[in-house]
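Late entry, evening session. Most of the bench is empty. Finally got around to the prediction I had been postponing all week. Sequence below, unchanged from the version circulated by S.P.
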Amino acid sequence: IGPTPTPTAAPAAAVVLQKILGDCWGVTQIKELDGTRPDHVRAFECARTRLLEMAQQYPEAAEPHRVLAWGFLFALRDEGAGAAEYERAAEIYAQQGRGVDQAEILLRLALLALPHDRRQGCLLLGQSASLDPQNPRPPQLLENFACASHTLPTPPNSSPAASPSATSTAQPIISAP
């Protein structure tokens, strides 16, 4: 057994992701993916294998997990797999100290969790709000979902503890990864 390979630098991962986004969706940024567009949903099959390979090749890159989550949610309607990919992205962002990005993923996980586990969804919204106090969406959602009694103090870099049910057929509320 040889030495463990050194992970490739993140800029290389960004180049690979850019190529996948362009080749499969004809877009340049993750935020341009649209789960309401049938052509974007179908294009996930073009990207799926490449994204899975990318996630293995670049273990420090959260973005392939974000795009995989989007595809699992919108193309395959697999909420459990989508949540698992979002959880992995949140873990990577936490390890890298990227609180704003982690907060966005926790918000997405909260929206997935709320229909199944209100307490968990509220906890995730509270974590998101504490990680990115400049984002008005988590506090607004905390209020909208009457989460005041569910928000317990949590460490800002903690990982989500639970995911929504993998057997759910509920439609995701979010449209971009």
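Two things to note before I forget:
The chain has a mean pLDDT of 85.
The radius of gyration is 16 Å.
Will write this up properly tomorrow.
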